[in-house]
Specification:
There is one protein chain. The protein is an alpha/beta fold. It has two domains: 4-228, Rossmann fold (3-Layer(aba) Sandwich); 269-417, NAD(P)-binding Rossmann-like Domain (Rossmann fold), CATH 3.40.50.720. It contains 16 helices and 18 strands. β14, α11 and β15 (314-318) form a beta-alpha-beta unit. The chain starts with a strand and ends with a helix. It binds adenosine-5'-triphosphate. Adenosine-5'-triphosphate binds at residues 15-16, 18, 20, 38, 40-46, 197. Required for corrinoid utilization. Probably part of the ABC transporter complex BtuCDF involved in cobalamin (vitamin B12) import. Probably responsible for energy coupling to the transport system. Pfam families: ABC_tran.
C-alpha cells in the first residue's frame, strides 16, 4: 500500500452507552478509493464520522495525514477531510454557488476575508463537477443527482486531501450512480483519497481499489474487492446466499444474491447437458436443491460454464469452437454413467454437442427439456434427428419449469428401480 493517509488504530466508539465500533483498525492508502461495505447498522457512517473528526473515539485513534483528527480544531480538521453527507435533502435556501462557497469556510481568515484563491477554488470545483449551469438556481430546486454533484463540488472547494462520502449513490438513478462514482474515481486518479460507504456491492467492486467489510461494528475483511467479496464473507456479514463471479463485460467481481435457500437435502448426482445459457437455471435449482451437479461438455467462456463456475459445480470444458476430444468424451461418459439422472437442456444442436447428446442417450434416467421445437434448434441434420429421437424415446420430456420435479421423480424412482435391477440381477445369477 502507498503511505496511509488515514490510519485508524484499534478504534472503539461508544454512542448513547452502546459500543458501535470495536477493535477497528483500517489504513487508507494515499491516492486510493476505499469502499466501506456492510449491512445496515454495521457502523459505516460511524467510521466515516470518526475519520472526519466529528466523533471522538472511546479508545484508539484516527490519524489523517499524521494528525490525530479528533484533537484538531474543527477548521483544521475540515482542511484535511471533506464530507459529502448521506442525506442530500438540504433545507436551507441558498443558491448552488453559495452552497459551494461554504466549502471555503475552513480556509477563510478569522475576519471572513475572501481572496483570489478562495474564488478560484470555487470556480474549479464548479467546472470539475459540471454544475455551472445550475450555479444560480436554489439548491432546494435541483434534482437529487444534481444536488449530489453540488455537494461534491462543495467538498472539492474545501480542497482537502481526503474526501468522505456517505452512500453517494443512495437515491440516484443508475446513470447518476455511475456518473458520481466515475467522478470520484477521476478525482482519486488526480490525487485525492476517497472513502465511501457504498451499499451496492457491485458498484463498490467496480470502482474501489480496496474494500473494508464491516459487520456489527467490526472489520470482517479488508483488501482488494476480489479478496473481500467472497461467498463466505458475504454469508457471514449479510447472512446472504450469494454467488460471486466475474462480470462478463467489465471483468469486475460480481455478486448475485440468490433468493432460494442454500443447498436443500436432495441426494444424488445429476449431469446436465446444456450450452449458451440453456442450462443456467437448471444448474442453479438442482444444486440449490442439494444435488451433486456436473455439466458438460461446454465451451470455455460459455455462459453456462460461467454459471457452473460461480456455483462451484463440476464442469467438463473444451476450448471455444473445438469439438470434444477423446478425453472430454471420456469425462462426459463417466459423469453420465455415475449420474442418477441426466438432464438435456433445450440446447441448440450442432456438430459440437452431438457427442454430448449421444452420451446422454445412454443414461438410465433421463429428463429432456423441450421448450422450442427440435427443428428450430437443429443445425446438425438427420444424424442429430436420430440421436434426438432416441433421447425423447428414452427420457421424460418436460417443460423448462418442470426440471427439478422431473429429476426428483427420476432419482427417487431410482431407489425402487435399483431394487428392481438388483432383484433381476440376482434372479439372473
Ligand atoms: N447517536 C447514536 N446513539 C446510539 N446509537 C447510535 C447513534 N448513532 C448510530 N447509532 C447506532 O450505531 C449503529 C451503526 O450505525 P451506522 O449509521 O454507523 O451504521 P451504517 O453501517 O452506516 O448503517 P446504514 O447502512 O443503515 O446506513 C446502528 O445500530 C445505529 O443505530
Amino acid at each position: 500500500m502507498t503511505d496511509p493517509l488515514v490510519r485508524a488504530s484499534d478504534l472503539r466508539i461508544d454512542l448513547g452507552g452502546t459500543t458501535i465500533l470495536d477493535g477497528v483498525s483500517v489504513d487508507v492508502g494515499s491516492g486510493t478509493f476505499v469502499g466501506l461495505i456492510g449491512p445496515n447498522g454495521a457502523g459505516k457512517t460511524t467510521l466515516l464520522r470518526a475519520f472526519s473528526g466529528a466523533l471522538s473515539p472511546t479508545r484508539g485513534h484516527v490519524e489523517v495525514a499524521g494528525e490525530r483528527i479528533d484533537r484538531l480544531g474543527s477548521k483544521a480538521a475540515s482542511r484535511l477531510a471533506a464530507t459529502v453527507p448521506q442525506d442530500t435533502s438540504v433545507s436551507f435556501d441558498f443558491d448552488v454557488r453559495e452552497t459551494i462557497r461554504m466549502g471555503r469556510t475552513p480556509h477563510l481568515s478569522r475576519f471572513g476575508g475572501w481572496d483570489d484563491e478562495d474564488a478560484s477554488a470555487v470556480e474549479r470545483a464548479i467546472a470539475r463537477t459540471e454544475v455551472a449551469e445550475l450555479a444560480d438556481r436554489a439548491v432546494t430546486d435541483v434534482s437529487g443527482g444534481e444536488r449530489q454533484r453540488v455537494l461534491i463540488a462543495r467538498a472539492l472547494a474545501q480542497a482537502t486531501p481526503l474526501l468522505l462520502l456517505d452512500e453517494p449513490t443512495a437515491s440516484l438513478d443508475i446513470n447518476h450512480q455511475v456518473r458520481t462514482l466515475e467522478l470520484v474515481s477521476e478525482l482519486v486518479a488526480e490525487g485525492k483519497t476517497a472513502v465511501a460507504a457504498i451499499h451496492d456491492l457491485n458498484l463498490a467492486a467496480h470502482y474501489c481499489d480496496e474494500l473494508v467489510l464491516l459487520s456489527e461494528g467490526r472489520v470482517v475483511a479488508t483488501g482488494p474487492p476480489e479478496a473481500v467479496l467472497t461467498e463466505d464473507n458475504l454469508d457471514g456479514a449479510f447472512g446472504a446466499n450469494a454467488v460471486v463471479s466475474r462480470h462478463p463485460v467489465t471483468g469486475s467481481v460480481y455478486v448475485t444474491a440468490l433468493p432460494e435457500a442454500r443447498a436443500g437435502d436432495a441426494e444424488g448426482r445429476v449431469h446436465v447437458v446444456g450450452g449458451g445459457g440453456t442450462a443456467a437455471r437448471h444448474l442453479y435449482l438442482l444444486s440449490a436443491a442439494g444435488y451433486d451437479v456436473s455439466v458438460g461438455a461446454l465451451n470455455e467462456g460459455d455462459t453456462d460454464t460461467e454459471t457452473a463456475r460461480s456455483l462451484g459445480l463440476d464442469a467438463v470444458t473444451v476450448p471455444p469452437f473445438s469439438s470434444l476430444d477423446s478425453a472430454a468424451r471420456d469425462a462426459v461418459a463417466s459423469r453420465v454413467e455415475r449420474a442418477d439422472c441426466v438432464v438435456v437442456a433445450d440446447v441448440e444442436i450442432g456438430r459440437g454437442n452431438l457427442a454430448n447428446l449421444r452420451a446422454a442417450a445412454e443414461a438410465d434416467r433421463l429428463v429432456v427439456v423441450e421448450q422450442r421445437p427440435f427443428a428450430e434448434r437443429n443445425y446438425a441434420g438427420e444424424e442429430a434427428a436420430r440421436v434426438y429421437d432416441r433421447l425423447r424415446s428414452r427420457g421424460t420430456v418436460v417443460d423448462a419449469g418442470d426440471v427439478l420435479a422431473a429429476v426428483t421423480a427420476e432419482v427417487e424412482g431410482e431407489t425402487t428401480g435399483t431394487e428392481g435391477l438388483g432383484q433381476s440381477e440376482s434372479s439372473a445369477t
